Amino acid sequence: MQGKREPSVWDRIPYPLVCAAVGLAVGWTPALVHGPIPAKFDRFFLDGHTAVWAFYSARSLIGALVGLVAWPRRWLLRGPMCGLVAMVPPGFFLLATPGCGPT
Hints:
This protein has one domain. The protein is 68% helix and 0% strand. Helix 2 runs antiparallel to helix 5.
């Protein structure tokens, strides 16, 4: 029979799983290029490496959340909403640290 094709590997993997995996992988890209500097937090007797990990984990969570949540249905709305949910807590932490943010 012509017209039928064998399903590829990509057809068998669930779409949310693909989104979550791609989001986790792309979320680490800013860590390779730039990111918060641990020395800024060490100056105020905070563990700078732990603080920086909070930002990296929040960034990688954004992609995972976009892939895993189903509401709202439109992807264009899900991205910013998940980004807000993931980045607001580290943002408050950053604003509370003297010398970081707009202060």
